[in-house]
Design brief:
Layout: H1 3-30, H2 52-58, E1 62-63, E2 66-67, H3 71-106, H4 112-120, H5 131-140, H6 147-171, H7 175-183, H8 188-199, H9 201-216, H10 220-225, H11 233-238, H12 248-268, H13 270-280
Antiparallel strand pairs: 1-2
Helix pairs in contact: 1-12, 2-3, 2-12, 3-6, 3-9, 6-9, 6-13, 7-8, 9-13
C-alpha cells in the first residue's frame, strides 16, 4: 500500500471518529439515567438503559411519579415550529431560485449582470451586521415572534446562493433542447417545468436540502426574532440549561431527535447532493 493511501485512510478515520464520537456520546447520555451520568465518563456503556428522557419530551414529563417541568408540550411545539419554518422556507426559496435562475440564464435584460452580482455580493455579509436594521424592520411590520419573521429572514439569507446554484444549472443545459421543445409547440413555461426541471433535478435537491438544513439549525436569529411562541428546537434546547440546574439527559435526547431529519435527508439524497453541488458550483 502506498504511503499516500495510508495517510488518506488514517486521515479519513480520524475525521470519521471526530464527527461520530460526539454523536455517540449524546446518544449514550440520552439513554442513561440522570443519577448515572457523572459516571458515564468512566464507562463506555451505561449500567442501565432508560428511555425516560425521550418519553418526557415526546409524551409526558414525569420522574418517579412526580410531575416535573413541562418540557414535553414545549418540545413538541418547538418541533412543529422548526418543521413549519424549515419546510415553508425551503419551498419559498426553491420556487424563487428556479424563477430567478431561469431568468438570469435564459432572458436578456438591461442590468442583468449587475443585478446578479449585487445579489451574490450579499452572501458574505455577516448576520450580526444587519441584526439591528432587520429587527427594526420586522418589528415595524408587526412580525416579531411569528413564523413569517423567520421565513423572510431565512429566505433572504439563503436565496442568493440558491439563485447562483440554479443559474449555473440552467447554464449547463444547451439551448438546442429548448429550441426543440418550442418547435414541438411547447410554451416557455411548459419547457421550464416539463423539460428543464427534470434535467436539473440534482440542483433542485441541493437547494431544497441545503435550505432545509440551514433553516433547521439556526439559533441566533430565532433567539432574537422568535423567542417565545414560535421558538424552534435550538432555542428550546438551550433553555435546558438554567441558573440552578442542567438537564443533561433531556438536552441530549432533544439533540438526538433534532439530528434525525438532517441525517435522513443527507442519507436519502446523498447522490443528488454530490452531483448537484459539483454541477452547480461550475459555471456552465
Amino acid at each position: 500500500m502506498k504511503k499516500r493511501s495510508v495517510i488518506v485512510i488514517i486521515g479519513s478515520v480520524f475525521i470519521l471518529l471526530w464527527t461520530l464520537l460526539p454523536i455517540g456520546w449524546s446518544v449514550l447520555s440520552s439513554i442513561t439515567p440522570e443519577r448515572d451520568l457523572p459516571s458515564l465518563s468512566r464507562r463506555l456503556v451505561p449500567k442501565e438503559i432508560t428511555l425516560d428522557n425521550y418519553k418526557n419530551l415526546l409524551f409526558e414529563s414525569k420522574r418517579a411519579g412526580v410531575t416535573i417541568q413541562t418540557y414535553g408540550p414545549r418540545f413538541r411545539q418547538a418541533l412543529v415550529n422548526s418543521t413549519v419554518v424549515a419546510f415553508v422556507t425551503m419551498c419559498t426559496v426553491l420556487f424563487l431560485s428556479i424563477i430567478s435562475g431561469y431568468a438570469f440564464s435564459r432572458l436578456k435584460f438591461k442590468g442583468q449582470k449587475v443585478i446578479l452580482l449585487s445579489i451574490l455580493a450579499t452572501m458574505p455579509i455577516p448576520v450580526v451586521a444587519v441584526l439591528i436594521p432587520l429587527y427594526k424592520l420586522i418589528s415595524a411590520w408587526g412580525l416579531i415572534d411569528t413564523y413569517w419573521s423567520l421565513i423572510l429572514i431565512y429566505g433572504g439569507a439563503f436565496l442568493p446562493v440558491s439563485i447562483w446554484i440554479m443559474t449555473n444549472h440552467f447554464n449547463s443545459i444547451p439551448l438546442a433542447i429548448e429550441d426543440a421543445a418550442k418547435v414541438d409547440g411547447c410554451s416557455r413555461i411548459g419547457t421550464l417545468f416539463k423539460i428543464l426541471l427534470p434535467i436539473i433535478r440534482p440542483g433542485l435537491f441541493v437547494v431544497s436540502v441545503l435550505t432545509f438544513l440551514n433553516s433547521w439549525v439556526q439559533f441566533l436569529m430565532p433567539l432574537v426574532f422568535a423567542p417565545n411562541k414560535v421558538k424552534p428546537l435550538p432555542v428550546l434546547i438551550s433553555e435546558f440549561v438554567t441558573k440552578y440546574s442542567v438537564e443533561y439527559g433531556l438536552m441530549n435526547a432533544a439533540g438526538v431527535i433534532a439530528m434525525i431529519p438532517p441525517i435522513i435527508l443527507v442519507i436519502f439524497f446523498q447522490k443528488y447532493l454530490i452531483s448537484g453541488l459539483a454541477r452547480g458550483a461550475v459555471k456552465g
